[in-house]
Amino acid sequence: MDTSAAARATGAISSIPRDEDGPVFRAPWEAQAFAIALTLRDRGVFTWSEWAAALADQIKRAQAAGDPDTGETYYLHWLATLEHIVAAKGVTTSETLHRYRDAWDRAADRTPHGKPIALTPDDFE
């Protein structure tokens, strides 16, 4: 990951969990979601201001629904914001996102613990 891009992002969005070296991730998918947001922003899909507003809205909705806001769910909000913003910007559709989420769930269900998950065409049926 481009460390200067990560530093710019953490400076622009103060609520990102981080230590003195930069963003802190609990799992690889969190780093991947972070990197996707950086890439989409760098490609002009959205601005940091748009991102910050969308993420704040997502977190407020989650808090209103009972999220304890302990920081442990932060990247779940990040991912939900990514899904919302790419659909709103026409990068993909909500239907396509749901299709892939369902396919991923099917692939994960059949994959033994500790093995890599691989999507197959059957997962999309």
Outline:
InterPro entries: CN_hydtase_beta-like_N, CN_hydtase_beta_C, Elect_transpt_acc-like_dom_sf, Nitrile_Hydratase_acc_put. This protein has 125 residues and is mainly alpha-helical.
**Global outline:** globular
Mean pLDDT: 87
C-alpha-based Rg, rounded: 16 Å
The number of helices is: 5
Oligomer state of the chains in this structure: single chain
Biggest sheet record:
2 strands, antiparallel
Write the element-wise H/E pattern from the N-terminal end onward: HEEHHHH
Number of individual domains: 1
- The residue fraction in helices comes out at 55-70%
Beta-sheet strand percentage? under 5%
User: How do the strands line up in the largest sheet?
Assistant: 1-2
The counted number of beta strands is: 2
SS-derived structural category? mainly alpha
**End-to-end gap:** 34 Å
Q: Catalogue the unreliable spans.
A: none
Task: Give an overview in words.
The protein is mainly alpha-helical and 125 residues long. The chain has one domain. The protein is 59% helix and 3% strand. It has a two-stranded antiparallel ribbon. A hairpin with a 2-residue loop joins strand 1 and strand 2. The longest helix is centred in the middle third of the chain and has 17 residues. The chain is globular and about 40 Å long.
